[in-house]
Amino acid sequence: MIVGDGMADYPLESLGGKTPLEAARVPHMDRLAREGAGGRLKTVPGGFAPASDVANLSLLGYDPAKCYSGRGPLEAASLGVDLEPDEVAFRCNLVTVSEGKLSDYSAGHISTREAGLLINQLEERLGGQGIRFHPGMSYRHLLVVKEQLLEEGRGKLKTMPPHDITGEPFEPHLPRGKGGAFLTDLIRKSQIFLSGQEINSIRLDLGENPANSVWLWGEGKRPSLDGFRERFGLSGALISAVDLLKGLARVIGLEVIEVPGATGFFDTDYRAKGEHALKALSGHDFVYVHVEAPDEAGHTGNPVEKVKAIEAIDDKIVGPALDARIRFPNLRVIVLPDHATPISLKTHVDDPVPFAVWGAGIAPDAMESYTEKEAEKGSFGTKKGHELLPLLFSLENKPPGEK
Ligand SMILES: [Zn+2]
To answer: What is the pTM of this model?
Structure first.
């Protein structure tokens, strides 16, 4: 399963009225769609925000409506941080605020090294007594808080993903409800502390966005999910640069394969990811390769980078996967995004995503290329995200639709 995060999109004027998938040169994805079959997937159940964790949980065959307990706990699992039953985990972004606005959800994609120093200093200054900061990668970190600290306030706690409010005043989006005042206080203290840090003066001197605030969101308690093997009777592995996805993998018992050069950004080593995925097929029934770059291009509103990322996935991951069928005659390859991240909106939407599957026992349908529009012709029709994997695992050598 090859997942181009946020790959699906809407037509763009700057691409001559085409979507990035339509504009990209993707001979391997097109072959996969032409010789295989496809359809559309609703990866985000009604009532859920179209977040990556929800969508990826769904792609892995789990119904988020039944299994989802928040993003923070998955990130905790990925960092090897155990949660006590009375603890709540939050995603803790390092962000840039300027003139009262949340101007960058990633603090200029700050390096893991600089970010680690800042998070450790925050832990020293603000941690203890039921509060723990844990460093992760780049701008993505973790805060764990004892539940009893979050008791003040009324109504359900509401937090906001920072990538959804980029460029907006941050005050109206500070945490609200039960625990909101406590978290807001922590954010304000982080702003005072972080703006005085030397790393940030250096970043400003270099024209880089300073990491001058934390942003807390994605709260949740320890999840309980069936293992992938118990659920499907198959072994699996996952490749991703994103902590969240690795956390999800650890929680359901997929082997996490670390790939040198996988960055979660435009500069990721696509080829290395593809190679490691194929290598993993020798030891596993199922391999999930996740590439974050198209989503980042969507969030930054950059159609050129999005097309480039899609073409790199096609050339360096999908192409070699199709070639690998010589070695693995029973191979099936699925290409899809977890959700759409339209350039024009710079954020995720919950529209159904196009998918195509190719390989053993998959009969061709009317799809002629891999695009949002062509997927509407797919013989699978529109399915719920978590229905796809069980369906494909149960599908023997017969075409979809045939009894
Ligand atoms: Zn995203």
So the answer is: 0.80
